[in-house]
Predict the 3D structure of the following.
Amino acid sequence: MLPGPDAGVFITFEGGEGAGKSTQARMLAEALAAAGEPVLCTREPGGAPGAEILRGLLLAREHDWSPAAEIYLHFAARAEHIARTIQPALARGDIVISDRFADSTMAYQGYGLGADRALIAALTCLLPVRPDLTFMLQTSPAVAANRIAGRRQALDRYEAMGTAFHTRVADGFAEIAAAEPDRCITVSADGTVDDVHRAVLAVVASHRSRVV
Ligand code: Z5A
């Protein structure tokens, strides 16, 4: 994949809940920063003040959005995230690492909820940035369930959806990865935190021309 017009590099972490995306995004950011690289770690939905407000609306269990409204809300949050956080960092030459991005809308809303995938694909094509590299963290359902059970917070709207929903989401991520093998690297996330981190670093090393 050719780098975009910006000077920086855009890396995303995707996968189902409990895959360890936040943990691995943070560890990669720390490793790159320790190597002297300028890094910005961010997340979706959120990553900018207005986008964090929309995150609250999307994750709250009080309201069930219509499928189209839910897609547009994720893309509204993403537009704010891109304009306020991602593009300025890429323009500075940073390595931007985002915990989730547009693949999550395709997997959760498109595959999980059965919302309009053509609309999601069209909105994704219109985005002014595209990841240079995407880690698809894959966990077996039993491992993910164990990790989620270890958390104390109340379930958000997506976490509260059933096993069938999360199976469709996992299938969606697998299809996205198969369709874009140049961008999406699938990494097994069933091992220890350090095992997965080593696998992530190996991928970064093998994509050196794209990443650092
Ligand atoms: N969503 C959407 O529907 N559409 C969209 O377009 C976007 C998002 C962008 C965001 O919630 C929700 O929004 C998400 C999808 C939806 N919902 N779900 N489900 P979030 O950001 O709060 O949730 P999440 O992304 O799913 O986070 P998570 O469940 O916390 O998963 P994670 O980031 O992959 O895992 P983690 O926080 O790094 O680790 C979870 C726990 O496991 C923690 O205690 C770790 O210490 C532990 N862990 C992590 N890795 C390991 C290993 N390797 N071994 C053992 N234990 C581990």
